[in-house]
Amino acid sequence: MVTEKWITVNGRRVRVLQDGSGQPPILFVHGYSFSADTWSECCMGRFKGRHEVYAVDMPYGPRSRSDHFERVNENDYANHLKAIVDVFNLRDPILIGASIGGETVLRYLALGYPATAAVVIGPVGVQRIDLARIRKPVLGVWGSRDDVSPQYNAELMRRFGFRVTYIEGAGHPAYLDKTEEFIKIVEEFLSEVGRAAITEG
Question: How many domains, the chain?
Fold first, then answer.
């Protein structure tokens, strides 16, 4: 059952939805026009049997109920995300972020913050991120009809060795346009990440 929690991060109230059990945890980060509820409605329930799942209302966008703030430094939202991870004591979470949420996740990883792996859906601002600093498995997912995050973002991720896949017929919010296909892609990616971790261990 999804539980709504309110925490305080650097003096700001933050709303987080939580459900499920199992490790590693999954933390969902929404895009600008959405909120934590979006992830709860489409995807969280599909992973809660194997993972503790969280969706955070980020401090941007009209639907977020957390305290808002505009970033001054481009890493401000990533640092905010790390503070949320710390409050919940999440150990090496799997991060799933869309659009500006995907950018936030990539910046989080480039800063060297702890994670197991990440899935980013149509991330924006990729060209301004130091992708060479990311050492975790990352999957980029684009809708073939994405008209917000251009294909050169995807090609840039490929150039740095990250896997990129397209969902045919989906737009910018590919996880909403083709939810079942998106979930299958994520499950396969996380299964491969898990097998690789066992092999390396």
Answer: 1
